[in-house]
Amino acid sequence: MSSNSSRELPTDRLATSDQQGRRIYLYSAEVKGRFRTARTWTHSILILVFLLLPWMHVHGHQAILMNIMQRRFAIFGLTFWAHDAPMLVFLIGGAALTLGLVTAVWGRAWCGWACPQTVFIDSLFRVIERVVEGDHVARRKLDTGGWTFDKFYKKCLKWLLYSTFTLVVAHSFIAYFVGTDELSRMIRHSPAENPLSFSVMLAITGFILFDFGWFREQFCTMLCPYGRFQCLLMDEHSTLVTYDVRRGEPRKGLNSEGTPGGDCVNCYRCVQVCPTGIDIRRGTQLECIGCTACIDACDDVMTRLHKPRGLIRHASAVALQGGKSKIIRGRTIVYSLLLAGIIMGLITSIATRRPVEAAFIRATDTPYQEIKTSTGSSVIINHFKTDLSNQSFDGAVIDLLPTAEYANRGVEFVFAGRPLHIQAGQKAGAEFFIKFPKSLLVNGHTQIALNIMNGSAIVLTEELSLVGPYL
Ligand code: SF4
Ligand code: SF4
Fold first, then answer.
1. 319: closest CA among 231, 261, 240?
2. Which segments within 155-309 are labelled E, that is strand?
3. What pLDDT digit, counting tens, does each position of 397-419 carry?
4. Would you say 58 and 42 are in contact if contact means Cβ atoms under 8 Å apart?
5. What per-residue confidence (pLDDT) applies to 471?
6. 8 Å CB contact between 159 and 76
7. pLDDT at position 303, please?
8. What is the pTM of this model?
C-alpha cells in the first residue's frame, strides 16, 4: 500500500494520489482537544439516534418510515402516501435549503459534524482501527511491512469488527425502508424468502465496508456532490476552519536571518492529523471537510509554546483581515426567506391534510326524480358518485350521513353496500342516492351538509348542491 509522508505534500495534485493518479493511503494521527471531545459526543448521539429511531413509535407508527415499495411514509406521527409527494418535496427542499443556509454561515459544518460518512468513519471505524492496529505510526508500519501472523491476525480482527458493526448499521438502515416489524420477520426467516431485501442488505453492507473501511476521504474529495458545489454557497463572510496567515507567517524556517518569525513553528502537526491529507496553511481548499482536527492539533502546539490558541481557528476571510463577519447578508436573507416559505407551505399542507379525501360528482342520468309518498307529499331523489381515498395507515369503515340538521329535516342517504371498507392508502368509489322533501327546494335547488364517517367518528363534513323541479 502506497503511503505519504506528511512533509511531502504536492502542489499540483491531491495529497492522496501520486503522479500516476494512484491512491496514496493516509494515516492521519489522533488528536485530543475541545473540538475532538465535542465531535465525539455529537457523533455518538447521532449514531445512537440513527440506530434507535426506527424502533421508536409516534401515534402507533414508526417514527421515520420511508417504505418506497409500498409507497407509504411516516415522519414523527404524520403519515404520507405517494400522492402526498408535494409534502415530501417540501421536506426535501427544506432540508436542502437548511444545508445551504448552514453552509453560507458556518461553511462545511455538515461535513465535519453530521455527515454519516464522517460520523461513522471518525467515531466508529477509526476507533476500531486504532484499538486493533495501534496509532498512525504503528498502522503505517503494519501496512508497509511484510505479512506476519500478527499482521494477519490484526487485519482479520479489524475487518471482522468492521463487518459486525456494518451489519448492524445496514440492518438499521433497511429498517427505515421496510419497517422494524418487517425487518424482524425477515431476520427470523431464511434469506431465500426475502431475496430482494437480503440482496439490498448485502449490497449496503459491502458498500459501507468499502467506503468507510477503505475508500474514506476519496469519497469526500472525488465523489461527494455537496463537496463539489459547497464553495458556491459560501462567501467571504462564511466561517471556515482557517489558518491565520498574518499571525503565523513567516513560519519557522522561512523567516530571514535576524527577523522575527510568525507563530507557526512549521511542526506539520496540523497536516498529520488531517483526515483528507491537506495543509490548511495553503488556504481554503475543496478537500477540507471542516473537521477541526487541525484546530485541536495547533491549539495543543500553541499551548505548549505558551502562545495564544487560535492560530488555526473558525473565522471568515473578512474576520482574518480584521473586519467583522456578517451573518445577515444577501444570500443568508434569500436562503432564510426561501426556507420560511417552504416551512409555511409544509405547515399549510399538513394542517389542511385530511385522513379521508372525498370527491363527489353528479351521476349522468336524469338530474333528479320526483316520487309521491303514501302520505301524498313529494320526495326528490338525486343520484351521486363519490371517490373516497383513505390517506391514513389504518383501514377505514366509511359511511355517508346527512348532518343532524338535515337528517332532522328529512334528508336520507341511500347507499348500496354501506359501509365501505377501505384499506390503508387505498381508494374506493361508490354510488348513492339522496332523498329529501321537495319543500327544501328554493327555486329548484338547495344545499345540504353531509358527514363522512369512519366508524362512529366524523372525519370530514362536505356540502352538496341538490336540484329538483323549479317551483
Ligand atoms: S500545527 Fe500550528 S504551528 Fe504546527 S505547522 Fe500547523 S499551523 Fe504551524
Ligand atoms: S484542514 Fe483541518 S478542518 Fe480541514 S479536513 Fe483537514 S484537519 Fe479537518
1. 240
2. 240-243
3. 999 999 999 999 999 999 877 88
4. no
5. 66
6. no
7. 97
8. 0.81
pLDDT number for residue 188:
92
Q: Report the 10 Å Cβ neighbour count for 294.
A: 28
Query: How many Cβ atoms are within 10 Å of 41's Cβ, its own excluded?
Result: 11
Q: How far is the CA of 238 from the centre of ligand 2 (A)?
A: 16
Ligand 2 pocket check for 430: Cβ under 6 Å? no
The residues pairing with 378 across neighbouring beta strands, listed in sequence order, are 372
What are the counts of helices (DSSP H) followed by strands (DSSP E) for the chain?
Answer: 17, 16
Q: Is the CB of 266 under 6 A from ligand 1?
A: yes
* Paired strand residues for 460: 452
Cell representation of residue 374 = 303514501
Atom 3 of ligand 1, residue of closest alpha carbon: 264
C-beta neighbour count of 238 within 10 angstroms: 25
CB hemisphere CA count around 395 (13 angstroms): 6
Q: What is the pLDDT of residue 208?
A: 97
What residues contact 435, with CB distance under 8 A and at least 6 apart?
A: 379, 380, 381, 411, 412, 413, 414
Domains of the chain, with CATH numbers? 34-233 (no CATH), 240-320 (no CATH), 356-467 (2.60.40.10)
Q: Is 135's pLDDT higher than 50?
A: yes
Q: Is 291 in the pocket of ligand 2 (CB under 6 A)?
A: yes
Mean pLDDT of 345-361: 86
The answer to whether the beta carbons of residues 98 and 338 sit under 8 Å apart is no
Ligand positioned closest to the Cα atom of 295: 2
Q: Which residue puts its alpha carbon closest to atom 6 of ligand 2?
A: 274
In this structure, which amino acid lies at residue 182? E
